Amino acid sequence: MLILDFEGYFQMRMATDPDPTDELRGVSGYTFAFCGEPDLDHKLHFQPDEEGVWERDFGPGGGPRVGVTVTSATRNGADAPELVGGTIAFVDGQVIEHNGLLVRNDYFIINPFRVTLTSGGKVLLDRVDNLNPSNPNMPENEADSAMLKRRQATTFTSNSEEVAAATGLPNAASVTLIQNRLDRKRSLESLLASTPKKNTVKRAELESRIFELAIVEQWWNLTQGTPGNRPIDRRAAQLALQLSGWNVDMNGAIATNCIGADERYPWNIAFWMGGWDGDAMCGYIRGTWTIPLES
Amino acid sequence: MTPPKITTRAELIDALRTASELEHQLMAQYLFAVYSMKRYTWEGLEPVQLEYVRRWSSSITLIARQEMEHLGLALNLLSAIGGTPSFTRPNMPQRADYYGKAGIKLELTRGNLDTIKRFQRFESPDKLTKKLKFEEPVSQRKAEAWCGKKDKIKNRALLNAKLMMDATGMRAASPGILTTSAPVLGFGWASVQELYEAIRGGFEYLAGTMGERNLFVGKPSLQIFGGPGSAQQQGSMDDLNQYDVDLIGITNLASAQLAITMILEQGEGISANPEYLRWTHFCLFTGIRKGMEEQRLGELAARPVVRNPMTSLYPDVERSEVTLLTNEHTLLVSRIFNESYELMLLLLLYLYSDNVKSQAEVSSLMDAAFFPLMTMFIRPLAEILTELPAFRSAKEKSPEGMSNAGPGFELNGDILLFPSNASWDLFQERFDTIVGMYDVLLADGDPWIGLPNQKESGSDHSRIWARLEYMRSNMQRLAADWRAKWLNIGITTQ
User: Fold this and answer.
1) Cβ under 8 Å to B: A residues 192-221
2) A36 at interface of B, judged by CB pairs closer than 8 A
3) Residue of A nearest to B50 (CA)
4) Do B477 and A98 make contact, defined as CB atoms within 8 angstroms?
5) Are B346 and B88 in contact (CB under 8 A)?
6) What are phi and psi of A128, to 5 degrees?
7) Which of A162, B126, B375, B422, by CA, is between 20 and 30 Å from A35?
8) Residue of B380, B432, B387 whose CA lies nearest to B405
9) Which of B39, B258, B491 lies at the smallest CB-CB distance from A224?
10) How far apart are CA B152 and CA B141, in angstroms?
11) Pairing state between β B323-324 and B309-310
């Protein structure tokens, strides 16, 4: 059995509720393609050099950098150091719910679902999972409940300490998360101050991001948002929100198998996603890919 | 002249119905304007200009969502005292004095500077409109001064105490307001603010004279709200921090006062904490107007969308004020929009009704009405319409020189409940009808492939066709889920 543990930041430049899920620039949600940036592509990107990745500047406070890699690997119980540092990709994957049309309450599926392992510039493993194995080309909107459940996450955890530890937050308390967003705002204000006036595109992008981060506090000043009753804005809450329970026995075609994986059996992949930073449009993933080997 | 005062339940019900109709009308106008605003660099704007327009669009959609919230609060207030919620409203345009001296001209116009000035006046505090002529814009100088004012009182408790004293003083200075009755027929208020203050006065007067128990006779279960005590605890309608919407249940005078305070805080900024002022509807519109004037984008921000586009002439509008759509495919898209909009209103009406429905059905109605229909159909259809030609001939333009269509928010009469025993099946027919309309529309090839900037590399279809095909697939799913009573939605709770 080959067991690959992987983790790191991914990017997903996607529109957020209540924007429609095919929105290209972002209007009414809290994620946007700001000026000078390409359209939102709604795809999961695990590596910074993938087409569609657009990493933003964060100023002196820093921010997440895309890269999901293998952190430990064992082959039949023995260390496999040659695979550590290899890169994982969910090729063209989208985190989907169609604003409650396909699945409710943000129990997302990932579709299409194709996973690769690359090491030393060479693809070693490449397999897809099909919602409907008997009809691999079936549109996702035709999936029944059993097909969806196979692909869905199962558990939300707010203020997850596991997420906070993974992303470097001191803790997962709401006050910490709010402070993180205010710190990011200050960092961007500093970056804006040092951005030349003639760089109007960059300045407009930064101004918009600062405006969005300021929303973290705006509702507190309404009558129903009095001190002591300050519900945390989603821009902050999602920094430590964890969506876990994805556990898929990958059933589809194998395009590449360079490590002697047993193709007769499913390859299981289990992971959580969380730590979503809407300003960076990045989140954190941690999981394990378990692959049977030929005996 | 003293504004009408409210001293009977019937008057309060009339005023709340007027308020809910008004919120509905404002929302439709704001949405029409924002969906007409440019989105892409190929529409003639530089990236930085487009970023300004994007920010303004985000602000207007926030305001429109809060108008939906205000509509929901007005309906909850109405339901709480035994009124019957309604989504009926006249088609637009209507004459400028439709809401009396409030001067709220009901019409659908693209998001240009004139439209923003009109919206700014809709949301203006009374103080800034008192000396203005009918439809005259608010002074931008005074508006900016209002939005930039700083209150010396930083302590919220002290601020509230001061506001309560102000309100008491205002009532004392107008002793006639609550002592004699006047009919509420017609619209006797000078502004939205005055209407809501009269409603608040009516609640306070009636709670005092008849007692809260006798005033609040409606079933709380007929209201739509989130949070504790609600059937929708998992929803996000009680949480401003998610979608900027906070629907609360109305069960007594305190909750009624809170709802009205929320409406006035968010809209005009009345009694708002100075720190919040810049987020109020009035100040957001003031900021947009300033930006449009400074950036000289007053005309360039919006697509060339005709005024008051309609698929047909309705008896409640003037022919001379309507632009009748004549492009065959645009007409069909427009009819799908109107069908979807009407279906959403029917679902909402059923939700608010006393018709027997299980909790599962309530959840299904909510899931169909609040998220997918609004965000996945009505919005993208409206956006598409503002990109489509209004007229049969590509060279034809409206008298104002406009050529693009827009969402008419057309209603063919009242929005009425289906009979209780057949509701589910009648809703199914509506869903299936809309699926069929998409089928007809998309069976005719891709008539939009020749429009400018529609062809995407690597695709044989226009962007518009691709969006409509996505919507068809999603509407098929919605119709199928309705038929299957939502059996195929996978995991929904942990």
Assistant:
1) 200-201, 204-205, 208, 211, 218-219, 221
2) yes
3) A35
4) yes
5) no
6) -110, 160
7) B375
8) B387
9) B258
10) 22
11) parallel
Please answer whether residues B297 and B52 qualify as being in contact, where contact means their C-beta atoms are separated by less than 8 angstroms: yes
Burial zone of B19 (CB within 10 Å; 0-12 exposed, 13-18 middle, 19+ buried): buried
> CB-based contacts of B336: which residues, under 8 Å, 6+ apart?
B381, B434, B437, B438, B441
Phi/psi at B388 (5° precision): -95, 155
Whether A129 contacts A113, CB under 8 Å: yes
Q: Is A137 on the interface with B (CB under 8 A)?
A: no
Contacts of A221 in chain B (CB under 8 A): 272-273, 275-276, 279
Residues B217, B207: Cα–Cα separation, whole Å: 12
Tell me B31's DSSP state.
H
The shortest CB-CB distance from B488 to any of A139, A144, A200 is to A144
Residue ranges per structural domain of chain B: 1-303, 306-494
Mean per-residue pLDDT over chain B, rounded: 87
Interface predicted TM-score (ipTM) of this complex, two decimals = 0.94
CB contact under 8 A, B490 and A103: yes
* pTM (two decimals): 0.93
At residue A234, the pLDDT reads 86
Fold of B1-303: Ferritin (1.20.1260)
Q: Cα distance from A20 to chain B (closest Cα, Å)?
A: 5
Measure the CA–CA gap between B228 and B240, rounded to whole angstroms. 15
The 10 Å Cβ neighbour count of residue A209 is 24
B439: Cα within 13 Å, side-chain hemisphere: 7
B306-494: CATH number? 1.20.1260
> Mind listing the pLDDT tens digit for each residue in A67-109?
999 999 999 999 999 999 999 999 999 999 998 889 888 899 9
Task: Kindly report, residue by residue over A170-214, the tens digit of the pLDDT.
Answer: 999 989 999 999 999 999 999 999 999 999 999 999 999 999 998
Looking at residue B22, its amino acid is L
Nearest to B35, CA basis, from B308, B382, B372:
B382
B362 in contact with chain A, both atoms CB, cutoff 8 A: no
Scan residues 51-80 of A and list those with Cβ closer than 8 Å to B.
none
Segments making up each domain of chain A, as ranges: 2-153+247-291, 167-234
